[in-house]
Amino acid sequence: MSAADRARKALSRLVDASATERILISTAALVLSVLIGAVLVLVAGRMTTCTAGEAVYYFGTGFCYDPVVVFDRLFLGALGDPLSGSWSPNGQFAVTLRETTLLIFTGLSVALAFRTGIFNIGTQGQMVVGALATALGVLWASSLVSGVVGTVVLIPFGLLVGGVFGGLYGAVPGLLKAYADANEVITTIMLNFIATGVALYLVSGVFKDPESAANQTVPLPEFAQFPALLFGGRQDFSLVALAFGLLAIGGLYYVLEHTAFGYDIRTSGVQPEAAEYGGVDAKRTVVASLTLSGALGGIAGAMYVMMVLGTFQTGIPSYGFDGITVSILAGNNPLGVGVAALLFGVLKSGTTVVQFATDVPPQLVGVLRGLIILFVAMPEFFRLLGRGLPGAGSKPEAVATDGGTVTESGGETDE
Amino acid sequence: MASAVHLDGITKRFPGVVANDNVDLEVEPGTVHALLGENGAGKTTLMNVLYGLYEPTSGTVRLDGEPQTFRSPRDAIDAGVGMIHQHFMLVDPMTVTENITLGNEPRKWGGLAVDRSAAREAIVDLADRYGFDVDPDARVEDISVGEQQRVEILKALYRGADTLILDEPTAVLTPQEVDELFDVLEELTAQGKTIIFITHKLGEAMRAADEISVLRDGRKVGSVDADGTTQEELAELMVGREVLLDVDHGTAETGDVVASVSDIVVEDDRGVPAVNGVSFEIRGGEVFGIAGVDGNGQSELVEAVTGLRTPDTGEIRFRGEDVTSASRRDRIDAGMAYVPEDRQERGLVMEFDLVENGLLGSQHDPELAANGRIDWSKTRGHADAIIDEYDVRPPDADAEAHSLSGGNQQKFIVGREFERDPELVVASHPTRGVDVGSIEFIHERLLELRQQGVAILLVSSKLEEVQGLSDRLAVVYEGEFIDVVDPDETTEEELGLLMAGERPGDGGRPEATESEATERDEPADLTDSADGERA
Predict the structure, then answer these.
(1) Residue A122 and residue A17 in one domain
(2) Do A260 and B373 count as a contact with CB atoms less than 8 A apart?
(3) Same domain, B125 and B224
(4) Where's the ABC transporter domain (chain B) (predicted)?
(5) What is the DSSP annotation of A197-266?
(6) Are residues B443 and B526 in the same domain?
(7) Highest averaged pLDDT of the listed ranges A282-291, B74-83, B98-107, B473-482
(8) Could you tell me if residue B298 is inside a domain?
(9) Testing the interface with B: which of A255, A273, A277 to mutate, by most B Cβ within 10 A?
(10) How many Cβ contacts (< 8 angstroms) between chains A and B?
(11) Is A32 inside any structural domain?
């Protein structure tokens, strides 16, 4: 049997893998990436100089960086050291969950568009617009209500404002695509720049907080921000926000799998001609999908303002772009987005812990992060690839039939 | 002399399925052998065993009397077996020469570089020897499907194949390309090559093959001499019972006008009018057929009626309403069922399973999705009912559409559309790629619907189909109705002339090329008579 045939068989196995097998594969990939990362840390540690006292010794050789410490900090550190007994909800774990919450929304935003067959790179811009609109809207509304009532009213209001403005900003490339045939990849990228630029102009001008040196709006009052609950609030994380995130995951899953609208979206995403045949209005679906996608991005912006910063400041971190990776890692499945966002959140928050605790350069930590993401994403990527190949992964019953699209093939080009 | 190919007692089991059950097959060298069977009879599986893609559970493959063990197609190729798949394995942006020599390029400079001129020469020689008409420097993406198929055949020959397997080679070809292919097969066998071709079309098997073996449910049920058999005999072997190739048409009460088209002009994708001022009306309980050579505006007309294309001028009315610019969804909701021409692009979402595909077009139907929420258990029941009644194989609602063979995909679509409880059924080539047993069933169901008072617009390039089923038959030529006739009062010869563009009572007919009026399809073969008339 040639190598190519073996590869083909492996690919079909991968395509046919059950859910349990896929989880096992992902776990194995994670372990493997950690092992390879450990070797990298050792090699890098060998090439650096440090005093004998700082070095660790493995196999009788001294290394400057200890991979055990690095990965311990990256993972356990990110979880706030649950095994040490000194775990506190106000520690690093809250940071991890904060990142996870934001990534859930941007990840869902990208995933929804992806499922419609649209590549929304504009989540970042939609987030900026949503964040700015929320900061201004809530600031205006906070003069009308206050106290606990203020919190109960203003938080949904802020999310709504963020969602509406993010959604409107997402509708722009949607309309351009549906009615002017403009490629959404290009328009969303350009709209990102416009959002950032206009936000900078407004926040350094009319909406600038006169008391502050930074380009930011007047800070929101405390009652207009997400309540800390349980987690103390030192790390700008709110369980309420995470609950909204989980609700969004469940909601989007339900919409996609159990509603006619979701069916329209999924059909348009995989086979637009069949969708048209089935009575789906392609233009309306594109606009609706990008509007909803933008709304999710806008809500991420609202979360950032009302949970993390308490104001709008220029230079929002690239959660929108990370959302693309999260979505791909999750196979564009809303439920997967939750898991992928958590993994991403751990890696993001763990990176800072590693930098505090060790001398390992941040670039190397970046490499380790990249390795983990690459390894975890690869099996899913190959599954997608394998499904595209004729013959691979077809069910036995299907193989027994003939004449259709399941023509077994490929072996002939194996040299 | 030993048989070129001798499959001896081949059994191939998959978990839960016996795809081939103790099949013997002997093919004489220098002959064309047709492997005939219904969709899902195990023809492709058997050939995949011969091509080394599957190892048989038991049984022996012999070539020229020598037992062979193929672990991969590589082994089969080395032993002189080549297979041409239904979907070609060509690299589109590369040239014909590059595609053929890919992986076996002549080399120069001690194997460091590809010797392009030697490769080109080898291809020219090879093409000359078998009388193939291919341009060795053309890019594959620029040549026709028929030429691509010849490139595939050349590729197999270049690798030294003596036995060629062709999997449904005519499925993708136009009628005149089919003629060319059969000429090629004749030339190949004349030079000693052995051909096995898989088909479910009776007419083709009889035309091109020397011997025909019929598979049914994984077993070989007979081998017959192509000259000594009839279509009826073959159909009975394939299906296992007597098949009525002629439809008992009967009559039905016609009701009110359900749909009418007046004077519409429809442009094709290039902006050229493909339908030019066509008018007709269809009453309930009536089958209105449209006959014509493919590409004379049928597709555009059907798309305009069903709402996938907007006509430039004219009016389409459905159940008394003007629906000329109504959306596709509105028309579905109003009771228009549509069996599309292209099942894999339009009719099914290939990645979806049959449960989800059963919902296509009904996703806003309150029956299955009240208030926009899909009732999946009802939807599953709906899919199961279609699978059961229309004999879709495998009978598994969780199977993804792409895993079904073409005929079974078609049966599922037809079932879904017929069971929509429609007022109007637009059926475009409803039995294309479907085996004879299922064709019979689909025809019966179509006539049952007519009996129930449903209006039916039937478009087919199979003359016997439209002629046998229609109450009134329009012949379309270059976007216009040449004539509307009573199919029972019209001979095939007359229809053939009309399809070629000759107006009734009109001496001079427009230039009809060879390509026209030559739909060769199963089971009837109208073309010989039509050609004869024109000659």
Answers:
(1) no
(2) yes
(3) yes
(4) 5-242, 259-503
(5) HHHHHHHHTTT--TT-SSSBPPPPPGGGS---TTS-STTS--HHHHHHHHHHHHHHHHHHHHBHHHHHHH
(6) yes
(7) A282-291
(8) yes
(9) A277
(10) 194
(11) yes
Question: Do B118 and B250 sit in the same domain of this protein?
Answer: no
Domain membership of residue B381 (yes or no) is yes
Segment 301-320 of chain B within 8 Å of chain A by CB: 308
* Touching A: B residues 112-151, CB under 8 Å: none
**DSSP character at residue A120:** -
CATH number for the domain that contains residue A146: 1.10.3470
Q: How far is B203 from chain A (nearest CA, A)?
A: 17
Tell me, yes or no, whether A146 and A224 share the same domain: yes
What is the chain B residue with the closest CA to A280? Answer: B329
Q: Quick check: B407 and A273 CB within 8 A?
A: no
Number of domains composing chain A: 2
pLDDT, residue B509, reads 44
Q: Do A397 and B14 touch (CB under 8 A)?
A: yes
In a domain, B126, yes or no: yes
In chain B, which residue's Cα lies nearest the Cα of A264?
A: B363
Q: How confident is the model at residue B250 (pLDDT cuts 50, 70, 90)?
A: low
Do A274 and A370 have their domain in common?
Answer: no
Instruction: Please give the pLDDT value at position A92.
Output: 86
Which residue pairs, CB below 8 angstroms and at least 24 apart, start in A386-389? A386/A11, A386/A12, A386/A14, A386/A15, A387/A15, A387/B351, A389/A8, A389/A11
Q: Which of B77, B198, B396 sits opposite A397 (nearest CB)?
A: B396
Q: Three-state SS for B9?
A: strand
Mean pLDDT of B255-263: 92
C-alpha torsion sign, points A388, A393, A394, A399: positive
Tell me if A274 and B346 make a contact (CB, 8 A cut-off). yes
pLDDT in tens, A249-272: 999 999 999 999 999 999 999 899
Closest residue in A to B48 (Cα) is: A408
Q: Is the pLDDT of residue A323 over 60?
A: yes
- B396 and B496 belong to one structural domain: no
Cβ distance B347 to A264 less than 8 Å, yes or no, reads no
pLDDT tens-digit map of A327-336: 988 888 999 9
Cross-chain residue pair A403–B43, CB shorter than 8 Å: yes
Cβ-count burial A108-135 (b if 16+ within 10 Å, e if not): bbbbbbbbbbbebbbbbbbbbbbbbbbb
The range of the structural domain enclosing residue A205 comes to 92-357
Give the confidence band of A387 by pLDDT, cuts at 50, 70, 90: low
In which domain, by residue range, is B416 found? 345-421
Q: Tell me: do A392 and A407 sit in the same domain.
A: yes
> Is it the case that residue B318 has pLDDT exceeding 80?
yes
The 3-state DSSP composition of chain A as helix, strand, coil percent (nearest 5) reads 70, 0, 30
Cβ contact, residue pair B403, A406, below 8 Å: yes
Residues A25 and A118 placed together within one structural domain of the fold? no
Cross-chain residue pair B394–A400, CB shorter than 8 Å: yes
The pLDDT of residue A361 is 87
Q: How many domains does chain B have?
A: 3
**Do A267 and B48 lie within an 8 Å CB cutoff?**
no
- A273-300 per-position pLDDT tens digit: 999 999 999 999 999 999 999 999 999 9
Alpha helices, DSSP H, located in A47-146: 67-71, 92-115, 123-141
pLDDT digits (tens, 9 = 90+) for B124-174: 998 888 888 888 888 888 888 788 888 999 999 998 889 999 988 887 677
Q: Tell whether B314 and B382 lie within a shared domain.
A: no
- Shared domain check, B260 and B204: no
How far apart, in whole angstroms, are the C-alpha atoms of residue A166 and residue B62? 68
Judge whether B325 is closer than 8 Å to chain A, CB to CB. Answer: no
In this structure, is residue A74 part of a structural domain?
no
A290 shares its domain with A209: yes
Residue B225 sits in the same domain as residue B298: no
Residues on chain A touching B103 (C-beta within 8 angstroms): 413, 415
B360 contact residues in A (CB cutoff 8 A): 267, 274, 277-278
